[in-house]
Design a protein that fits this description.
- The protein has 341 residues and is of the alpha/beta class.
- The chain has 14 helices and 7 strands.
- A 7-stranded mixed beta sheet has the order 3-4-2-5-1-6-7, with helices on both faces.
- Helix 9 links the parallel strand 6 and strand 7.
- The relative contact order is 0.19.
- The N terminus and C terminus are likely disordered.
């Protein structure tokens, strides 16, 4: 059966013909429950499952986990991962703040947050010491999710920060002074290792590196890891790479599993069992100001981010993650590797 979860979405699919992501979906749904075998019934069922799962709740961390989503390469899935993981963690019952630290403001856009030039933003926090609480906005449609938006001003901040006191720790101070209770803060970094990224690395304890499953996936990561070491040595002794997430995994290619193996042998336990498939729905969602979790809750992309969020939440409280009990719509490597043999 060809499972076509996308029909459940609010939009009809503008791409005619077979969709690329369905190939990967089939392999990870080997044991469909004997319910409704029509594509529409199946899609509806998946959407309901996804939402049911979203509401199940997960252990909350003892204290706020500040995760820096970084990789100085552009286009590897930093922003996509930040907003969809944040939405997933919020749907699982957490209170989550996304800090948009990229002048492009893509995370703000994807969360449906207004970020034209006059909007109070993370620029004002970093440069003018405006309290974080004065720029944070609630994200429409997702309870418990908030965003500190980035405006285009932030492009100048990299230079303006240079002459300010405590230039590396301005974000950290702002976060320390923020009094709202939060379970997670996810910081979306720009594709560079300048002062904005350094501010994120000083503010957070955990680094989450999204790695795109393609050739040269590991190239350039040495530089990021050296920066993490430097910041740990001089400014933030708690900093460590806690999480690696494989993104844009294409289950039809051997390359994807080869890259995954390489990343796994390089990083080991930091790599999440769940990887994120390449999915048209994931890439469409931002243009509607939505995460894939609200845009198409039953899609493989939504399920994968929900599963990755679950894995992150369980790891945070020291509970082993059991990939065998992963949601059947989510992609984890075992099922994908089987699928390409
Ligand atoms: N799993 C995915 N499937 C399909 N497209 C994706 C996926 N993840 C990201 N993309 C697309 O890839 C592009 C780059 O992703 P983005 O998250 O903006 O990367 P970065 O923030 O690292 O520059 C965007 O157009 C995004 O929609
Ligand atoms: Mg980005």
């Amino acid at each position: 059966m060809r499972s076509d979860a996308n029909i459940a979405g609010p939009m009809t699919d503008p791409v005619p013909g077979p969709r690329t992501e369905s190939m990967g979906e089939d392999v990870s749904r080997e044991t469909p429950p004997p319910m409704d075998d029509t594509p529409i019934g199946r899609a509806a069922q998946l959407a309901v499952e996804a939402l049911g799962r979203a509401g199940e709740g997960l252990p909350r961390p003892d204290q706020t986990r500040v995760m820096v989503v970084a990789n100085q390469k552009g286009g590897v899935g930093k922003t996509t991962t930040t907003v969809n993981l944040a939405a997933s963690l919020a749907l699982h019952g957490g209170r989550v703040l996304v800090v948009d630290l990229d002048p492009q403001g893509n995370a703000s856009t994807a969360l449906g947050i207004d970020h034209h030039a006059e909007v109070p933003s993370i620029y004002d926090v970093l440069i003018d010491s405006k309290p974080l609480s004065e720029v944070v906005q609630p994200v429409p449609d997702v309870e418990g999710l908030f965003c500190a938006p980035a405006t285009i001003d932030l492009a100048g901040a990299e230079i303006e920060l240079v002459s300010l006191v405590a230039r590396e720790s301005r974000l950290e101070r702002a976060i320390q002074a923020y009094e709202q209770p939060l379970d997670y803060i996810l910081i979306d970094c720009p594709p560079s290792l300048g002062l904005l990224t350094v501010n994120a690395l000083v503010a957070g304890a955990e680094v989450l590196i999204p790695i795109q499953c393609e050739y040269y996936a590991l190239e350039g990561l040495g530089q990021l890891l050296r920066n993490v070491d430097l910041v740990r040595g001089h400014l933030n002794p708690n900093l460590h790479v806690s999480t690696i997430l494989l993104t844009m995994y294409d289950g039809r290619t051997r390359l994807a599993s080869q890259v995954a193996d390489e990343v796994r042998s390089h990083f080991g336990d930091e790599v999440l069992r769940t990887s994120i498939p390449r999915s048209v729905r994931i890439s469409e969602a931002p243009s509607y100001g939505q995460t894939v979790l609200t845009y198409d809750p039953g899609s493989s992309g939504a399920l994968s981010y929900l599963e990755a969020a679950r894995e992150i939440a369980l790891r945070g409280v020291g509970v082993a993650y059991d990939a065998q009990h992963a949601h059947m719509g989510a992609h984890n490597e075992q099922s994908m590797v089987e699928g390409i043999q």
